[in-house]
Amino acid sequence: MSVSVVGHSNPDTDSVTAAIAYANYLKATGTDAIACMQISADNLNPESKVVLEKFGLAAPQTMTDAAGKDVALVDFSDIGQAPANIGDANIVAIVDHHKIGDITTGSPIFFYAKPVGCTCTVLLEMYKNNNVELPKDIAAGMLCAILSDTVNFKSPTCTDADKAAVAELLRITGVTDQDALFMEMLKAKSSVAGVPIRDLVFRDYKDFDMNGKKVGIGQIELATLDQVADIRDDLYKTIKEVKAEDRHTVLFMLTDVVKEGTDLMVVSDDPAIIEGSFNGKIEGQSMWVDGMMSRKKQTVPPLQKAFGA
Ligand SMILES: [Mn+2]
Fold this sequence. Notes:
- With 309 residues, the protein is α/β, with parallel strands linked by helices.
- It is 39% helix and 21% strand.
- It contains ten helices and eleven strands.
- It is globular.
- Residues 14, 75, 97, 118-119, 149 line the site of manganese (II) ion.
């Protein structure tokens, strides 16, 4: 049985290209493998679509049920992000760059994780350490994944290892303009044209329990805030509705990747606690937070502290 290599649910470019890159690695080292993802190709996010098309990579095969399969996980190790029936699968390997999740195994497996910005950075190291030939098209996919996960090196999750991996992948692929490639991906990713407002709010959204208060935080990354100028009022109206459902606070991060900051839309029972968390003043619908790029690293921790969670 070949190994199905699969990334997390609602896959991003790292989960898609890491599945392709690790499946190729396994095949090159004598284990039959297939790249998979938990959605159909039609439902790929716009950024990954552009990446696959641009470099002529085939979309991974759809796999939503892991029962009875040999599987390798990339870019996650949480049951909640796994295909259905992961408990009835035979997990043979995990390659990741997140905190260790709640997946357990009945026997020893290959487990390789590093605190770097992207799974593809870890995979490149594996290719190099084991002298496995890396095809140009797959290298290009890996390059895009690192630029995406690290927001072109601007995310605080980016490490020197990610930068070194990008330098190496630029050399392998012959891509000369890293910033232009990133902007092309960013424009695809941040395109809001024709997207229903509620879908936009929930495209990258998480609820958090902060000391018993439900706090929702959504984020979209933009090449410029002008992209949402026409829909700001509709966005605000929608997050007010989401807040009214049962939440203490809803924040919506309009992150300007070029200016490296976030226009933070705020609807809260206690706006002062939000202002205090980020040392700013809400003017109208939002407050500008200079340098805020990462929900995980920069938005959630100060809030948790302020809420006493
Ligand atoms: Mn990742």
